[in-house]
Amino acid sequence: MSKLLTTVKWDMKLQYKYGLYIVTGIVTFLYVLLLMPLPENLLDRITIFIIFTDPALLGFLFIGALVLFEKSERTLDALTVTPLKVKEYMASKMISLSILAMGSSLIIVLFSHGFSLNYLSFTTGVLLTSLFFTLIGFIAVVRFNTLNEYFLTQIFYMGILNLPLLDYLGVLKSPVFYVIPTQASLVLLRSAFGEVAMWELLYAVIYLALWIGIAYVWAQRAFYRYIILKHRGGLSGGVRGWLQT
């Protein structure tokens, strides 16, 4: 546990150094300015839309930038001969980026809504959404070496994962959207601002947690295939140790 905490602190320092906190702060400030003058009949709806996209973009885009930087600096090669395990490396990225997303989201709703919402549902929705998109971004980025290549995949991933917004915005209603994990994210966020059915709430927590588990296993396998085998050409002793769970 102490090793993980140390790694999280180190990741947060690097994220600050790379300017991720400054970028997030600027975007958060702009969102607050956008939301504060809105009338009540629009405020909740637009806030949910913003909060849904904010941790999604933070998780997906920032994990891509961080991993690509570490690949270019050969940091990942060096990590394979340290006591740090793959699960700890991934967990540190997930935790540190979720803290960033949570901080941004909380500032947005505190300034726009105060305490007039269910913060348990809100923080659960933001946390699970951030974890999920960080893992999806991790899966997408490990096979690429440049940001341009990685950003092209955003069209595919975001195109599919943002489909439930069609249901939320009333453009297209269909139960098929409940198959897509991000529908669960929207249900959790809606429950923070109003009433949702109990079955929807249970579906949202269980289904999104299940997909986080699936994405975590997928991300580990992708890391092994595209990082470890590609850069090491096989399982050296250090790599075997890094893969231990």
Description:
The protein contains eleven helices and no strands. Helix 3 packs parallel to helix 6 (119-141), helix 6 (119-141) runs antiparallel to helix 9 and helix 6 runs parallel beside helix 10. With 245 residues, it is mostly helical. It has helices at 2-17, 20-35, 40-72, 75-79, 86-113, 119-141, 147-161, 164-168, 181-193, 198-232, 237-242. 33% of the residues are buried. It has one domain (2-242).
* Relative strand content: under 5%
Shape, per Cα inertia axes: globular
Mean pLDDT: 86
Backbone CA Rg: 19 Å
Figure out the total of helices.
Answer: 11
Secondary structure category? mainly alpha
**Strand elements, count:** 0
Fraction in helix: over 70%
Quick one: biggest sheet?
none
Number of domains: 1
In N-to-C order, the SSE pattern is: HHHHHHHHHHH
CA-CA gap between termini: 14 Å
Catalogue the unreliable spans: 234-245
Task: Spell out the blueprint of helices and strands.
Layout: H1 2-17, H2 20-35, H3 40-72, H4 75-79, H5 86-113, H6 119-141, H7 147-161, H8 164-168, H9 181-193, H10 198-232, H11 237-242
Helix pairs in contact: 1-5, 2-3, 2-5, 3-5, 3-6, 3-7, 3-9, 5-6, 6-9, 6-10, 9-10
Keywords:
mainly alpha; 80% helix; 245 residues; single chain; 11 helices
Structure in a nutshell:
This protein is mostly helical and 245 residues long.
